[in-house]
Amino acid sequence: MELNIIHVDMDAFYASVEEQDNPKIKGLPVIVGGLSNHGIVTTANYEARKYGIHSAMPIFMAKKKCPKGCYVFPRMKRYQEVSKEVFSILYEFTDLIEQVSIDEAYLDISNISMEPLELVMKIKEKVMIDTGLTMSVGVSYNKFLAKLASDWNKPDGIKIITEDMVPNILLPLPVRKVHGIGPKSTKKLNGIGVYTIEDLLGLSEDFLIELFGKAGMEIYSRIRGIDYRKVNTTRERKSLGVERTFEEATSDKKVLIKYLERFSEELSYDLKNRGIHGRTITLKIKDENFAVQTRSKTLNEYINDLPQIFDISLELLEEVEIHNKIRLIGITASNLMTSELEQLSLFD
Fold it and tell me: Which pLDDT band, with edges at 50, 70 and 90, does 203 fall under?
């Protein structure tokens, strides 16, 4: 199959931007997050990760593990600025881009005649020259394998996965590497003696469906190198949102609130930057069993201010019944209007 999908992922993006802007902290353990003991880690660079620090970890725990680390408060406006620089570079190479987050994207390179490796090297070089930042890149023939490959040689890595390498290259990987298998599912699989993808391949599709529901079908296909999802380059949007999947599921409400505060800031910035307002705010959470709950509130007025978005997010969080640990949380603004209150189709 043709190697037509690239997944790019900026390395420890927030922390890397801070290091680039302040060379004095380069090489030090850099932790971006709330500075009070009630705050949480947003991003940790690779030096900090050596101390066992990861995103969503409470700051007080991070300080115990790495008391001499460099702790920096998030600067969302600056990260957005650098993200736009990176994506403007990507668009110099192709218009077929699916932006997954502020620092991550899929590129469809089907129409580019250049060899994939040569193309990747040019992209990485251009990003480094213009921004001083590194990215890790995965190349393959579908989205699942490309994303898996981008995580293979971090940081500043390149990995290509071809059809003839599958499934052998996947066999020794732990099951948690499969998109769709979180901590709870990993524990469930480990409990029946399934630890690696090789073990997982021994399970029937029916068994996986019984174990995970509809997600079992996707898992069965993915570990066999099958993923029919296309790079979604659709530009028109009717909502704008921010969400995050935690490395470790949490039941700590303070952690969830801190994320909502940061997401409210980011969402407010995005809305104002695009000159739009939203009338509906939606909260989404997904627990460790992949059960999703959403709560929405539609207002009589259009808003884009941080305090209003945050207050509504907190109100919606109070309405959610949390019985299990949470693995994903996010907020979305919809019913979008321009500043002149004209119905808008939002273009990135």
Answer: very high
CA distance 323 to 203: 30
Evaluate whether 133 touches 16 at the Cβ level (below 8 Å).
yes
The catalytic site residues sit at 104
Which carries the bigger pLDDT value, residue 67 or residue 342? 67
Each residue's pLDDT tens digit, 8-29: 999 999 999 999 999 999 999 9
User: What does 88-118 look like in DSSP terms, one character per residue?
Assistant: HHHHHH-S-EEEEETTEEEEE-TT--S-HHH
Mark residue 123 as left, alpha or beta (left: phi above 0; alpha: psi -120 to 50; beta: remaining): alpha
DSSP string, 286-344: EETT--EEEEEEEEEEEE--HHHHHHHHHHHHHHS---S-EEEEEEEEEEEEETT--B-
State how far the Cα of 136 lies from the Cα of 31, in Å rounded to an integer. Answer: 20
Domain 239-338 grouped into CATH 3.30.1490.100 = yes
What is the C-alpha to C-alpha distance for residues 178 and 174, in angstroms, rounded to an integer? 8
| pLDDT digits 0-9 by tens, 215-250 | 899 999 999 999 999 998 754 456 788 988 888 889
CATH 3.30.160.620 for domain 5-11+77-165: no
CATH of 168-222, one of 1.10.150.20, 3.30.930.10, 1.10.645.10, 3.40.50.150: 1.10.150.20
Cβ atoms of 133 and 10 within 8 Å: the answer is: yes
Look at residue 276 in the predicted model and tell me its pLDDT: 85
| Cis omega (within 30 of 0) for bond into 183 | no
Burial tier of 293 (Cβ tally within 10 Å: 0-12, 13-18, 19+): middle
User: Is the pLDDT score of 263 beyond 80?
Assistant: yes
Question: How far from chain centre, in Å, is Cα 233?
Answer: 17
**β-strand 97-101 against 135-140: which pairing, if any?**
unpaired
d(CA 261, CA 255): 10
All structural domains of the chain with their residue ranges: 5-11+77-165, 14-75, 168-222, 239-338
